[in-house]
Write a structure and sequence with these properties.
alpha+beta; 7-stranded mixed sheet; disordered N terminus; Aminopeptidase
């Protein structure tokens, strides 16, 4: 008998918490599901060791004790303010399109704003149109292409949002949060 996959559901039980070493084994599992060559345990350990210094922030989406997604941010101070780079947003395949990535991005945005970030950027697969649509909701716009950036030569779309430091960005985050809660 074949296993029946139940549809993903939204869960009010999903919490966004700081990512810790105890999340690494499950994060590596999710990486291997998301990427041909994902981050290793040692890369995760190195990144988490830089949280609090080196401008790194990592958040985990958990249901109970189970990691269902995570996201990372690297804040870099520069002249005229700070910029941030979203290092990754990964969600359990069974929980995609359930608001997990939205909740992670809202939390990352709030952390970035608290750090004085005035612009943030990311790379996304050219074929990941759903992810690009999500990022557009956060004010990101395509700004360029990195040719053959990903495995097997896939291009990356570079996206930027220069309005994260604006007063109105809090309103956008509040609106996205309300939409997520009502979905």
């Amino acid at each position: 008998m074949n296993a029946v996959r139940l549809p993903a559901t939204r869960s009010s039980e999903t919490r966004i918490v700081p990512m810790s070493r105890r999340h690494i084994p499950r994060a590596v599992e999710l990486e291997t599901q998301a990427y041909p060559r994902g981050w290793s345990r040692s890369v995760f350990r190195s990144e988490l060791d830089q949280v609090g210094r080196g401008g790194r922030r990592y958040l985990a989406a958990v249901d109970g004790r189970r990691l269902v997604g995570y996201a990372g941010l690297w804040v870099v101070a520069g002249t005229g303010g700070s910029e941030a780079h979203i290092t990754n947003v990964v969600v359990d395949p069974d929980r995609r399109r359930c608001g997990v990535a939205t909740r992670l991005l809202i939390a990352l945005a709030r952390e970035a704003r608290a750090s004085g970030v005035t612009g943030w950027t990311l790379e996304v697969r050219a074929s990941a149109t759903g992810a690009q649509d999500l990022y557009r909701k956060f004010g990101f716009a395509p700004a360029g292409v990195r040719k053959a950036y990903y495995e097997q030569g896939e291009d990356a779309v570079v996206m930027w949002c220069h309005s994260i430091g604006d007063d109105g960005y809090d309103h956008l985050l509040n609106q996205l949060e309300l939409e997520e809660q009502g979905a």
